Amino acid sequence: MRALLDTSLLADAEPRPLPPGTLDEGWAMSAVTSGELEAGVLLAPDGRTRSQRLRRLVALARGPLVLPVDRQVASAYAELRQSVSRMASNDLWIAATALAHGLVLVTADERQARLPLVESRYVG
Fold first, then answer.
1. CB 27 within 8 A of CB 4
2. Which residues form the PIN domain (predicted)?
3. Regarding beta strands 104-107 and 27-30, do their DSSP bridges make them parallel or antiparallel, or are they unpaired?
4. Using 50, 70 and 90 to split pLDDT, how confident is the model at 40?
5. Distance (Å, rounded) from C-alpha 56 to C-alpha 15?
6. 6 labelled ligand-binding
7. CA 24/CA 9 separation, integer angstroms
8. Which residues, 6+ apart, have CB-to-CB distance to 38 below 8 Å?
């Protein structure tokens, strides 16, 4: 499966185990996730946490494709926003990226995993 990994999986200092086959066909992350991870470094409450988050960010920078928010993603966002009244905008932008690119959204966020229109996999 081609997967888009959500921030809820990538922000952890220790990666969560993923179901077998999740990353077999490659994976990507949204530019929104990249921004959230960078903000997490800057907003860290102490030096130790900042160092851990920075190491994780540097490791991820060598890995996946980062998909931009473009017109296609914006249209998918509008569709999702119409169908879901209460959800954080960034979560919808990430889901819209998966929808626009035909990727499976892999997330540790139960609400995000239940979004309409988006194929998803919940990793609890």
1. yes
2. 4-115
3. unpaired
4. very high
5. 10
6. yes
7. 17
8. 57
Buried b (16+ CB within 10 A) or exposed e, 60-90: beeebebbebeeebeebbebbeeebeebeee
46 is in an annotated binding site: no
Across the chain, mean pLDDT equals 92
| Pick among 3.90.79.10, 3.40.50.620, 3.40.50.1010, 3.40.30.10: CATH of 3-122 | 3.40.50.1010
- Per residue in 42-74, pLDDT (tens digit) is 999 999 999 999 998 888 888 778 999 999 999
Q: Is the pLDDT of residue 15 over 80?
A: no
CA distance 57 to 37: 7
